């Protein structure tokens, strides 16, 4: 054993401990314990020492490390240069019970628990990393049992994934009892006949030590469901191949997405066709009537019809953005701003555009940035006086880029910005009338960015925070 003071200095070392290090016990006293601890192990040892000193009771703590006599240690006998050992630290009290001591009559004073003298007992470690393996196994079992997704542990036998264990999530998701499937081929229970070839390919990849990732259809006790499947191979060193299959049920999400796509396409198509008919009839009425009241009513019908047609077009743009599953690409934000602004100088000749842009600003968003930025600029131009001033500033931050679009108009109505920027509940009465800001939010957030809105000193500002391209970070 040995004893260390509050500073971590060895103040007593037994002959047995010194012999383990191949050193003389007297020569070890007065040296920092860190001198004897192997490279990389000292933080763990120091943390264990600190935990013992801070503990309210007389509890002990263990850690494992490598010890040696150090470069300056006097070698004795044939002891190895470095030993792998388990240390058990505990507060140390002298044999008389009246204070801290080394057991030989010397007394070590301590002002507080934090300054406790600590003793350590050295033990031969049990099987290598046994304690650590037990801890990791406990942590894995906890995750395995409590995760909601279905998880199956299997062994590849021949070409079949034979079930060795399933978690409760598998039982609730697939409807089969653990005892029913354990020892059986997983494919016989969950793979539909028309997916046999696909399952064989996955099993072969697992046997080859390769991971799998796919959206698949699998059979449950209640019928077919769609899953996000991840296959993870592993080995135990016994010459056999094992794996984990993780299934996340995404049936509801995929069906909801499909339903939404069908509804919005049908509604948008019908809305556009019917509104074009209404618009044409309104124009015919205006041309045929001499009554000012009828003409006014027909003009209002035409104006509202055109508004609905613009909403339909915005919905088409939003759908295109959301359906675009391509990974983000690097685009130059400076070039994108100029490309969005230039055609609008002609369309809005009374407006003033004030640009403050760097020569180049590469961001990881892709071409969708142009659609998002166009919606912000259009919002600043269409809902403000003709002589509005639009300021666009772009700059590079530490890891991000910011695009700020400001205008001196009346600002975005609260009903519009609260649902988009303030996370207000979307209800029938407070959802906003347009899709433009939502497109901006969806595009920026899908790239890992953020959208903010601010109104102060007569200026409204929409700020897009975007990830810089990797090479520019």
TrEMBL record:
It catalyses: ATP + protein L-histidine = ADP + protein N-phospho-L-histidine. Coiled coil: none annotated. Keywords: ATP-binding, Kinase, Nucleotide-binding, Transferase. It is an enzyme of class 2 (transferase). GO terms for molecular function: ATP binding; protein histidine kinase activity. SUPFAM superfamilies: ATPase domain of HSP90 chaperone/DNA topoisomerase II/histidine kinase, PYP-like sensor domain (PAS domain). The keyword Chaperone does not apply. Its EC number is 2.7.13.3. The keyword ATP-binding applies. Residues 266-470 form the Histidine kinase domain. Pfam families: HATPase_c, PAS_4, PAS_9. This is histidine kinase. The lineage of its organism: Archaea, Methanobacteriati, Methanobacteriota, Stenosarchaea group, Halobacteria.
């Amino acid at each position: 054993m040995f004893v260390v003071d509050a500073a971590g200095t060895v103040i007593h070392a037994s002959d047995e401990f010194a012999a383990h290090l191949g050193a003389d016990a007297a020569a070890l006293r007065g040296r920092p314990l860190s001198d004897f601890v192997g490279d990389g192990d000292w933080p763990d040892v120091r943390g264990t020492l600190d935990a013992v000193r801070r503990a309210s009771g007389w509890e002990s703590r263990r850690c494992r490390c490598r010890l040696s006599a150090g470069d300056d240690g006097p070698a004795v006998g044939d002891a190895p240069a470095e030993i792998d050992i388990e240390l058990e630290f505990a507060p140390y009290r002298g044999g008389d019970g009246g204070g801290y001591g080394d057991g030989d009559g010397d007394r070590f004073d301590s002002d507080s628990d934090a300054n406790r003298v600590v003793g350590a007992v050295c033990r031969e470690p049990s099987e290598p990393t046994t304690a650590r393996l037990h801890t990791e196994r406990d942590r894995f079992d906890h995750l395995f049992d409590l995760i909601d997704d279905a998880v199956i542990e299997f062994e590849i036998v021949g070409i079949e994934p034979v079930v060795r264990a399933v978690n409760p999530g598998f039982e609730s998701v697939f409807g089969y009892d653990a005892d029913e499937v354990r020892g059986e081929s997983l494919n016989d229970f969950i793979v539909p006949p028309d997916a046999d070839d696909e399952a064989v390919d996955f099993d072969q990849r697992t046997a080859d030590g390769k991971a799998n990732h796919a959206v698949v259809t699998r059979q449950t006790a209640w019928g077919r469901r769609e899953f996000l499947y991840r296959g993870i191979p592993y080995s135990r060193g016994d010459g056999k191949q094992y794996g984990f299959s993780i299934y996340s049920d995404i049936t509801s999400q995929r069906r909801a997405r499909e339903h939404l796509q069908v509804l919005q396409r049908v509604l948008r198509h019908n809305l556009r066709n019917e509104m074009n008919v209404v618009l044409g009839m309104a124009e015919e009425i205006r041309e045929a009537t001499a009554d000012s009241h009828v003409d006014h009513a027909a003009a209002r019908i035409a104006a509202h019809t055109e508004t609905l047609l613009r909403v339909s077009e915005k919905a088409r743009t939003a759908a295109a953005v959301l359906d675009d599953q391509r990974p983000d690409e690097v685009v130059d934000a400076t070039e994108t701003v100029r490309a969005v602004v230039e055609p609008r100088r002609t369309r809005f000749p009374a407006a003033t555009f004030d640009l403050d842009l760097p020569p180049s600003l590469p961001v990881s968003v892709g071409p969708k940035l142009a659609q998002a930025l166009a919606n912000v600029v259009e919002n600043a131009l269409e809902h403000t006086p003709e002589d509005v001033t639009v300021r666009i500033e772009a700059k590079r931050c530490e890891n991000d880029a910011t695009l700020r679009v400001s205008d001196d108009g009346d600002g975005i109505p609260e009903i519009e910005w609260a649902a988009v920027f303030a996370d207000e509940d979307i209800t029938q009465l407070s959802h906003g009338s347009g899709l433009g800001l939502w497109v901006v939010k969806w595009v920026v957030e899908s790239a890992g960015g953020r959208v903010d809105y601010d109104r102060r000193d007569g200026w409204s500002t929409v700020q897009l925070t975007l990830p810089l391209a990797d090479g520019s970070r």
